[in-house]
Amino acid sequence: MLWIGLLAVLFGGIVALNVAALRGTIEAGKLSAETAALRTQNADLSATVASESSFWRITIRARRLGMEPSQPGPGSFLRLTPRQRQATSEAKRPAKASSPPHVRRAQSRSAQVSGP
């Protein structure tokens, strides 16, 4: 009689393990479906962002808002001079105004870090 009770407990444990495994499988299936749906949604959003951020679409919307492309003026470009002319042009420039204290501290720190 004892062995019948022992077998009943063992079979009950096996059934409980199978039920827990089945629940885990069902949960994994739900998570897999949710992951697939989120990936599809992410792909749709990426396609929307790509189409909304195209050059021509932005240009058309900017014109509707009254914006115009900028036109480079004569002062829009840097003019680099050779070192000998640069040294003479610096001598002709007026003295620079002193920098605010926080800028001087940052400059002195960068000079200390870079060193000789």
Can you give the helix content as a percent range?
Answer: over 70%
Q: Write down the secondary-structure element order.
A: HHHH
Q: What proportion strand?
A: under 5%
In total, the number of strands is 0
Q: Compute the CA-based radius of gyration.
A: 37 Å
Shape: rod-shaped
Mean pLDDT: 78
| Helical segment count | 4
Task: Present the secondary structure layout.
Elements lengths: L1 H51 L2 H10 L18 H10 L8 H14 L2
Give the gist of this structure:
With 116 residues, this protein is mostly helical. The protein has four helices and no strands.
Brief descriptors of the model:
116 residues; 73% helix; mainly alpha
How does this model look, in words?
The structure is a single chain. With 116 residues, the protein is mainly alpha-helical. It is 73% helix and 0% strand. It has helices at 2-52, 55-64, 83-92, 101-114.
